[in-house]
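Supplementary Note 3. Input sequence used for the single-chain structure prediction.
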Amino acid sequence: MTDDRLPLAELMAKTGDGDFLRTIAESVLQIIMEADVDGLVGAGRHERSGDRTTWRNGYRDRSLDTRLGTLNLKIPKLRTGAYFPGFLEPRKTVEKALVAVIQEAWIAGVSTRRVDELVQAMGMTGISKSSVSKLCKDIDERVHAFLKRPLAGDWPYLWLDATYLKVREGGRIVSVAAIIAVAVNTEGKREIVGLHIGPSEAEPFWSSFLKDLARRGLTGVKLVISDAHEGLKAAITRVMGATWQRCRVHFMRNALAYVPKGQNTVVAAAIRQVFLQPDHAAATQVWRQVADQLRARWPKLGVCMDDAEHDVLAYMTFPEQHRVKLHSTNPLERLNKEVKRRADVVGIFPNEDSIIRLVGAVLLEQNDEYQLQHRYMQIEGMAALATPMIEEAQPLQITPKAA
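The predicted structure, written as discrete structure tokens, is reproduced below.
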């Protein structure tokens, strides 16, 4: 059997003081793994035994981050069966998805030099199509079950945002939008409720996406927050029957494009005075005053503010407790950054299925984290959500009769 004695003198001779503890830790863990494998095999290395059940089949590299630094371990492989040490965590779903995407690109012969280097660095030379198919099937089943799950209850708030990725299509490299949908239910809990790939400017795309959410049970939507994508506003009205909130951050960028860079700070400060108002009526009044003041010097900016007034201030008609999270798509920014960080490793995706596989895995793990967090929005505001909407609707019904 394997000699369990740790050759301390030999280790001290080979390593310096700084690396001594790290080398000791690597050796101890390696001895533990070798002992575990001896038990599974039924024999030690190079030992003949009638109790043997399988044979060793080399090693695979795996790193482990510790307080002593990164430990470089060699996990024994078996010819039949599998072994994984209990002190290591299996790779997360998103890491498996990333590996699967790179493998798929490698097999398809469309990998760039960067992907080639990544594949070699991860020790994935000589990949078989059957192993890739098995890995992809496991990930796809979990991701599709998550993205197609039924939704129960009412979801008053819905955020939509697009992240643009590159994919090979018909021999060309094209840019597609990965639309991510996050919603908050009446309990104040948020969830990732959808992912869709396609051209973000096309109205049929938005209608198809929103109809799919509705079929899965996304009901009771009162406000949809997004950037000003062409065709989205009409799709929201037709499918959801909800109010649209134009992202305030994106609007500011669009508005400042009409102003010389030297005046951006002054103009931005003037427009922000609107958002400091306590209610919708006061915000509307200040908005029009600021628009008239800026119109004299920048007519196009005045027109822009006239057109965007109702869409940018829509959130002001909702409960005050919720407004800080309703005026923009900022709640999705961290999620988008994580998606881009993972996608940048791949660079160019071989097909749309690989995008859904990787991005869906990222969303699946993030949604699990959401479920462990506290309420995203105060539940008291949810109770008062319907009251202002009813009160505002009554004058619109009475006015025609009085006229």
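The chain has 15 helices and eight strands. Residues 17-41 form the longest helix (25 residues).
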